[in-house]
Amino acid sequence: MRVFAIYDSAGNIRSLMATPHESGGVGRRLEAGEQIATFDVPDLPDYLDPQEMNNRLKEIIETNKVETAEHRPRLVSKDY
Fold first, then answer.
1. How remote is the C-alpha of 37 from its chain's centroid?
2. Confidence class of residue 25 from pLDDT cuts 50, 70 and 90?
3. At a CB cut-off of 8 Å and minimum separation 6, what does 45 contact?
4. Are residues 10 and 19 in contact, defined by beta-carbon separation less than 8 angstroms?
């Protein structure tokens, strides 16, 4: 599953949107100071029901942040 992460300058994820790989982008206007990055999340299957998908996305937000130190955004554990 492809995930679009909207995050702030500290890497805190403000929202996640999941789309199948073959679909287009997302339509959301960014607020001042927000950035967006796309990540492939292989352990997030597209067959999950909407409630389970929301639960998994919330879990990703709670346990991860976006790291940009190497110029290419990547998801890393908040414990990193």
1. 7
2. low
3. 1
4. no
| Residue linked to tokens 């997302």 | 26
- Looking at every residue in the chain, the average pLDDT score rounds to 87
Q: pTM for the whole thing?
A: 0.83
Separation CA 50–CA 67 (nearest Å): 27
Minimal CA–CA distance to 41: which of 51, 49, 53? 53
30-51 pLDDT tens trace: 889 999 999 988 888 888 899 9
- Cα gap 53→60, rounded to integer Å: 11
Q: State whether residue 29 is helix, strand or coil.
A: coil
CB atoms within 10 A of CB 68: 14
Could you give the 3-state DSSP secondary structure of residue 24? coil
Alpha helices (H) in the chain, listed in sequence order: 50-63
